[in-house]
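Message: A physicist's question: would you kindly supply an amino acid chain plus fold tokens?
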Amino acid sequence: MKRSSLANLHRDYPNEKLVESKAPRDPLRLFEIWFRRALSSRNLDPNAMAVTSVSASGRPSSRMVLLRGLDRKGFSFFTNYRSRKGKDLLRRPNASLLFFWPELGRQVRVEGKVQRVTPRESDEYFKTRPRGSQISAWASHQSEVVAGRKVLESRMRELEKLYQGKDVPRPPHWGGYRLIPSSIEFWSGRRDRLHDRLLYKRTGKVWTRVRLAP
């Protein structure tokens, strides 16, 4: 692809102002407002977020997952504990999240410590998953090399027979994480790339807020 064709890719943003006088002092409250707006927009996966972890050697890696819980404690998602991100978070329990809602011209960056949710929370969420997703949690040894698609499909068939007529239990190597935010940055696209950025940082239980240059 020619560099010139990439350089010409641009668009104007909705020009929605993000100003201190109208922004809540609590960033989780502001996130809830923005998230509800994303839900009502035409965004295909409003709860999709990029999770970035860091390996023991300092190598970062990102992947898209779905936000499955939000409360005063933090942001929750679920995965295989033996996956690459699971191994990263075991050694370095810090991560960042990135939400991007292009239809709204908004993004939110969240950074903080990560801890596993309780087994009970993982069990409760696992029960809500479609049966096929429950079985695939057993069938897929996430992030490991696999000989081919047929191997995965064969495992699925075997497990479907094993659990036919039975409830599928949660695998012990599968469960949730909660990111406890220490900083949350809200970005709103504006004309001429003079975007709005408000950064909230937490010290103890107190949040402070500053504006960042775009």
In short: The beta strands are 48-54, 60-66, 69-71, 74-80, 94-101, 106-116, 174-188, 196-203, 206-211. The chain has a mean pLDDT of 94. Residues 15 and 34 are 15 Å apart (CA to CA). The two ends are 28 Å apart (CA to CA).
